[in-house]
Amino acid sequence: MKEIIVRPYTFEDAEAKLQLHIENKEHFEKWSPTLRNDEFYTIQGQMKSIKEHMENSAEDSRHDFAIFIKEENHTQTLIGEVQFIFVTRGPKQSCMVGYHIGEKFNGQGYMTKALKIAFEDLKFHRVTSEVNPENLGSIRVLEKVGFVKEGYYRKNLKIRDQWYDHVCFAILEEEFAELVAQS
Questions:
Q1: Which one of 21, 93, 114, 150 is least enclosed by Cβ atoms within 10 Å?
Q2: At what angle do helices 14-23 and 43-59 cross, to 10 degrees?
Q3: What is the pLDDT of residues 125-136, one digit of tens each?
Q4: Are 85 and 95 in contact (CB under 8 A)?
Q5: Neighbours of 104 (CB within 10 A)
C-alpha cells in the first residue's frame, strides 16, 4: 500500500477535490443523503465547501480531512475524504464518522490511517458510523478497522425520498489502540 497523508483541506486543494467528486459523483451519491447542487461541482463550490470545513473545524463542530496517496514522484493524489460529524465534547467525547473513497481506490486499506486522526489528533473516546445494510463495502471497511456492530436502526435516514434502515457500528479509543499495536 502506498503511503497516505490525511490532513485538513486547503484552498489549494479545490481543483483536486472538484475532480474527485466529478469522477465519483454516482459512486458517492449512491449512499449519501445529501444530493449536491450544480454549484458544488464548480471550483467556486469547492472553495465554499473548503471554507465551511475550516469554519466547522475552528468551532470543533465537525472535522473534514482530505486523504491523499503519495506517488513515487512525490506528488500527492487525492483519493477520498473522511468527516467526523456530530461532535460531542465534555464527558462524551464522541462523533460519527463518514467517508468517501474514490471508486478505483476502494478495498485497499486506506481507512485505518484516516481513523487515527479521530483518536490521536481529535482525542475522541468513541466513534460511531451508520451504514445502509446493502452497502457491503462500507461494512467490510468498518469491520476491518475494528468497528463493532451495536444495533440496527429501522427507517433511519431518508435518501432521495425513501427511508432506509442502517446498521450502527462503533469503536472505542482503546479498541483502536489495540488494533494499531497489533499491526
A1: 150
A2: 110
A3: 999 999 999 988
A4: yes
A5: 10
Q: Around 71, how many Cα atoms within 13 Å sit in the side-chain half-sphere?
A: 6
Q: How far is CA 54 from the centre of its chain?
A: 16
Q: For 159-174, what is each residue's pLDDT tens digit?
A: 878 899 999 999 999 9
Which DSSP string do the residues of 90-148 spell out, in sequence order? TT--EEEEEEEE-GGGTTSS-HHHHHHIIIIIS--SEEEEEE-TT-HHHHHHHHHHT-E
User: Is there a contact between 11 and 66 (Cβ–Cβ < 8 Å)?
Assistant: no
Query: What CATH architecture applies to the domain 4-182?
Result: 3-Layer(aba) Sandwich (3.40)
Alpha-carbon gap, residue 160 to 112, rounded angstroms: 30
Look at residues 150, 87, 169 and name the one whose alpha carbon lies nearest to residue 124.
87
The helix (H) or strand (E) run that includes residue 53 is helix 43-59
Q: How many other β-carbons are positioned within 10 Å of the β-carbon of residue 90?
A: 6
How many other C-beta atoms can be found within 10 angstroms of the C-beta atom of residue 129? 21
Distance (Å, whole) CA 25 – CA 21: 5
Residues 6+ positions from 137 with CB-CB distance below 8 Å:
106, 107
| Residue bearing cell 446493502 | 134
**What is the Cα–Cα distance from 15 to 12, expressed in whole angstroms?**
7
- Output Rg (C-alpha) for the chain, integer angstroms: 16
